[in-house]
Every structure is written in C-alpha cells, then in structure tokens.
Amino acid sequence: MFKRRSRKIAAIQAERHQYAAQLLPKILKDLIATSLPEERCDVRELDLLVLDFETTGLDPKKDSVLSIGWVEVNRSVIHLNKAHHLYIHHRNSITSESVKIHHIRPEDLRSEGISKEVAFKLLLHAMVGKIVVAHGTVVEKRFLNEYIQHQFNVSIPPLLWFDTLKIEKYRLQMARHQTDWRLSSLRKNIGLPCYTTHHALNDAISTAELYLAQIHHLFGKDKAPLCILLEASK
C-alpha cells in the first residue's frame, strides 16, 4: 500500500516534465520549478498556501470569482501577517441570491475591487513553492484552470493539493453518521470555534485551522507522511 502511494510524487514529476515542454510564461515555470518533497517527508515541515474563492456560481465557463482569500502555513504555524483578501472588479451585476450567500455587495467590488489579472497574478506568485490547500478543491482548481487557459492558453500546472474535505472523509473512514461536509460543520465536529462563513479570507483561515487539527487527530505526535495526505486528498 505504501509503495502504491509513493508513486504519486513520481507521477506528478513526470507530468511536470511534459508540462514544461510547452511555451510557458515565467510564473507558470516558477510554479513547477520548485523541487517536489519526498513522499515520506513529514507534512508538518512543509510550506502551505490555504486558499478560498467566493464565486457567483460553480461553473467557471459562465460564473466569476468575486473574492480570493489565502493564508500561509509554514511548518504548521498559521501566519496571519501573510494573509490576503482581494475583491475582484466585477462588470456584471450580482444577483440577490448570490449576495445572500457570500454577502459581497456590488459597491464593495466597485470601491475595493482590483482586476482579475492582477488578483490572479498575486495569487500565482504566492503559490510558488507551496502545497495548495482548500476545502473541496474542485472549485478552486476549476476556476484557476479556466483563468490559466484563458490567459496563457495552457492548462493548470501539476501542483500538490491537499483537500480538507477529503481528508476528513479519510479520517472518519466515510463514517455513515457524517452527512454534512461543510467547512463549518467539520470544524464544529473536530472542536473548533465557529467563524463567519462565505468570506474568502475567513474561510481560508478556517480551512488552515481545520487542516492542522486533522493532522493532529490523524497522527498525534507521530510523523505525518506526505504520501498519506496526497492519497487522502485525491
């Protein structure tokens, strides 16, 4: 079982070699230039970027990112001085139903919003050399991929991702009694306090705290091998 898991890093490295054969802008080259960690290394020693998007919907072909929040976790310490929250200028009107969910008002985007290009440039630079963490990575991956395809005409580069939603399912071994996989519910179950949800930076910090709690519950004081977290997050 361990040997099967250990091939994940080798597979990503092979994907990176193929990806690098394309004509790439510097930022994408930088994202795949950092050496990958050993599959048996302790994840507590790694640098992470915990990320959250607030969007108008779930389809990147027709929906938009309204705000991005991220925070860095270095050697299992959340660094709030390295946290960022960005509003993205949105040309189209926001529906009332969308506002009810994320509480982002059109005037927020007009007064504080920056261009999508600037926001994603800052994000991509922050991602260099880090494992990316999100709660349910499918949304962040889809919107990142859509932006990179549109901006650079290539797909999202092969990166290392941790998914706290999938890690919790792994931790509970798909316990039948657990049916609510929302970030707030999993935080409550693991003993973390409630935060305001659907705010990109709040959710990024909430996810970072959940991740660290999951590592503690899964491994205690023992080594937390990277390959196990990658397997749980796939």
TrEMBL record:
One of its GO terms (biological process) is DNA metabolic process. Residues 47-220 form the Exonuclease domain. Transmembrane segments: none annotated. SUPFAM superfamilies: Ribonuclease H-like (SSF53098). InterPro entries: Ribonucl_H, RNaseH-like_sf, RNaseH_sf. GO terms for cellular component: cytosol. PANTHER family: DNA POLYMERASE III SUBUNIT EPSILON, PROTEIN NEN2. Pfam families: RNase_T. Keywords: Exonuclease, Hydrolase, Nuclease. This is 3'-5' exonuclease. It comes from Vibrio kanaloae. The keyword Kinase does not apply. One of its GO terms (molecular function) is nucleic acid binding. Gene3D superfamilies: Ribonuclease H-like superfamily/Ribonuclease H.
